[in-house]
Amino acid sequence: MPEVPVSVQRAIKELKGQDSDPLCAYVYDLPELRHRAQGIVECLPPGCEMFYAAKANPALPVLGALAPFVHGFEVASGGELDWVRRHFPDTPVIFGGPGKLASDLEKAIDQNVELIHVESLLELQRLCDIAGRRQVHQDILLRINLELADTPSTRLTMGGVPTPFGMEEACIPDALALLGRQDRVRLRGFHFHLMSHQLDEKRHLGLIRHYLETVRAWESRYDLTITEINVGGGIGINYTRPDQQFDWSGFCSGLDELLQVYSGRAWKIRFECGRFITAPCGFYVGEVLDVKRCGEEWFAICRGGTHHFRTPAAQAHDHPFDILPTHDREAAAPVVANHSVTLVGQLCTPKDVFARRVDVESLGVGDLVVFRYAGAYAWNISHQAFLMHPHPKEHFIE
Length: 398
Ligand SMILES: Cc1ncc(COP(=O)(O)O)c(C=O)c1O
What we know:
Blueprint: H1 6-17, E1 24-29, H2 30-43, E2 48-53, H3 60-66, E3 72-75, H4 78-87, E4 93-95, H5 102-110, E5 115-118, H6 121-134, E6 138-145, E7 156-157, E8 167-168, H7 172-180, E9 185-191, E10 195-196, H8 201-222, E11 228-230, H9 248-262, E12 268-273, H10 275-278, E13 282-294, E14 297-302, H11 311-315, E15 321-324, E16 335-344, E17 353-364, E18 368-371, E19 393-397
Helix pairs in contact: 2-3, 5-6, 6-7, 8-9
The structure holds pyridoxal-5'-phosphate.
Pyridoxal-5'-phosphate (PLP) binds at residues 53, 56, 96, 158, 193, 196, 232-235, 272-276.
């Protein structure tokens, strides 16, 4: 039985009926996205906020669906800042990411960014110079790459080991000295985003406890009064075991206790999640164009490819999918039955693979393969110009 929601199946059928060419499309389930975002935010303990990391999927209908539920948007480039501000002039925005241009910092001040997450001492110096010259105030967090005794064991590590993200702990005294020499840029707290793809809520709670203890120690060591800690995003989606997802409500209960014990709720705790919020609302559909056998292996070539949907190639995983069978198979076209099959796209590279050697009951030409969890880091991270294939259709269920 396919796990594709009925509303998505209906939309796919309509899209299929619009064109005589085989189908390739992204379908986004916005009612489900709203429901999910609301549930995620409502679960948060008091004193916590959820910002959406626009980089996961900055499509306008997606941002529009999320805006009423999340506390704001996190942007990571001047481009994202312009995009979000142009369409959501009143939504709170925070601005992180490495390699900000001086013009990005100017823009952040002009466009009323609530907090800039400063990534290095040089960036801090530039921001202080700009704010001083323009005689304006700007609040910041310092993004710190914390040393961890126990390195997080996820597949995408942004901290705890040497990385270009944030500044090392040893920079804090210099950053505070720099801040002390001026009064335009104000420190509100610290930012940590040490990993992505976190699937284990207990490990994540352990990491957040470490942040809280560390900030408490810094407050007394450096005589600081901190009002805010950004604990980043990084909550994962279990692509290989979709039935075992991160337990958000269990995590939030644990966080509630943690905040009571370790922070006394003295600080605002902010999340900036992307993948966990939008991945489940997106579906990438490719119609099977050809099925062939080579030695002991079967291959199904789908309309589209990793130039539209880079997620499986980027994560080196077999992407979960469902099959919507066609009712009018070409009589002469081959079918793979009760065998494993490798699903590929139309690109002339062996890397254009969605899933390898996955058992199917029956897959034939004209069937629609629907990849779930395609709503984050999918279309927008893909090398869309490669081979000049047309773009997929895009449909947002309202
Ligand atoms: C600083 C920062 N914050 C938030 C995110 C969002 O991460 P995710 O989509 O895994 O929640 C990222 C992703 O790379 C990031 O680098």
